[in-house]
Amino acid sequence: MFLADGGPSPLHLTRSPRLDNALRLGWESFSRTLAAAGPEEAARWLSARTGDPELAEVAESLLASALGDDPDEAADALFGLAELAEETDDDLLADALWEGVLDRARGARDGDLIAEATRRLAALAERNGDPLAAAEFFIEFLNWRRQPGNSSDPEDVEVAFDEIVRLATSDGAQQAAAQYTYCQVGFTKLLDAEDPRAVEGEWEVDAPPYQSWA
User: How large is the C-alpha radius of gyration of the chain?
Assistant: First the structure.
């Protein structure tokens, strides 16, 4: 739940203002503060924030993995924490944790997890009334996927295109919706032809990165 200034609801304030304040600044700041606090203190904070005293024990082990050096383990642990945050309707916490999943998944070059984190972040942005921000998550995913060596399920690319077109239409950006529809047709043709570019690397020819309509 957000206040008008983007901060957390008073219902979510805890006895650790350092973590509460860092959370408002996004994943980069929040992750540094989590690491400084350590898994035990961070788990107590998370338990207090969510109002679930039984969460501390589970959260501590997840946080230990989330703050570790293995990007795959960190991404999986943050995934679990982000889902717990969503169950408590704490959008601010969920948003930061899904940003963390996205960050760690990129480090692991895990296309499936990047796509899932993208969908979750976009849904949060749209739920909070920002279709452009929601679309930008999908655009960022497509640009990541187009880079050499990056791969994902082609269905995730199709979903990203579908969502961008839908969000552009709802935001009144008809030209952008038409442009992304055109780009999707080109990708779908490659997919239907079983072209390997539909699975890995750049599928456009001499094209700049995709951009939002802002």
Answer: 19
User: What is the residue-averaged pLDDT of the chain?
Assistant: 91
What is the spatial distance between Cα 209 and Cα 150, in angstroms, rounded to a whole number?
A: 15
**Sign (positive/negative) of CA torsion 142, 146, 147, 151?**
positive
pTM for the predicted model, two decimal places: 0.88
Task: Give the domain ranges of the chain.
Answer: 1-108, 110-214
> Rounded CA gap, 110 and 121, in Å?
16
What's the rounded Cα separation, in Å, for the pair 11 and 1?
Answer: 9
What lies within 8 Å, CB to CB, of 7 at 6+ separation is 24, 92
Q: CA–CA separation, 63 vs 177, rounded Å?
A: 40
Say whether 199 sits in a helix, a strand or coil. coil
For residues 16-37, give the mean pLDDT.
92
pLDDT at 14: 56
For residues 195 and 187, the answer to whether their CB atoms sit within 8 Å is no
Distinct helix (H) and strand (E) counts, the chain: 9, 0
118 within 8 A of 160, measured Cβ to Cβ: yes
- Find out whether 166 and 183 touch, Cβ atoms under 8 Å: no
Residue 213 has pLDDT above 50, yes or no: yes
Question: 98 to each of 14, 61, 88, 116, 124, how far by Cα in Å?
Answer: 21, 18, 14, 9, 10
Four-point Cα dihedral 63, 145, 28, 24, nearest 10: -90
Tokens 């589970």 locate to 58
> Which two structure tokens, joined as six digits, stand for 106?
């990129």
